[in-house]
Amino acid sequence: MDDEIDRWKWVCPRGHRSWEATNHHFWCAECARTYAGDDYDPDFEALHNLATDETVHRDDLRLLTRVGPYDTLREGSA
Ligand SMILES: [Zn+2]
Questions:
Q1: What are the C-alpha distances in Å from 47 to residues 7, 28, 37, 42, 75?
Q2: Total structural domains in the chain?
Q3: Gyration radius of the chain over CA positions
Q4: Which of 12, 39, 51, 61 meets the CB 3.0–4.6 Å disulfide criterion with 19?
């Protein structure tokens, strides 16, 4: 297991790095902007790993990272 998250290699399902972690899912600013008005939902629960070319669900990411920085990354106050 990696102690640190290589954030650069994780992208949203559409390949953007502008995602943010929220309490219950991920959210992609680029998707929200690009697909505004479309049916596509910028909320998602899995990130795509560019290094391994696999998609990992949020629950599995938590296991991988253990320290759980995704939960506190951008939330400000808990
Ligand atoms: Zn995106």
A1: 10, 10, 23, 12, 18
A2: 1
A3: 12
A4: 12
CA of residue 21 to ligand 1 center, whole Å? 12
The token pair that represents 29 in the structure block: 């600013």
Q: How far does residue 29's CA lie from ligand 1's centre (Å)?
A: 7
Distance separating alpha carbons of residues 57 and 8, to the nearest angstrom: 17
Q: Give distance in angstroms: CA of 4 to centre of ligand 1.
A: 22
Domain of residue 21, residue span: 7-71
Does residue 76 lie within any of the structural domains? Answer: no
* pTM for the predicted model, two decimal places: 0.68
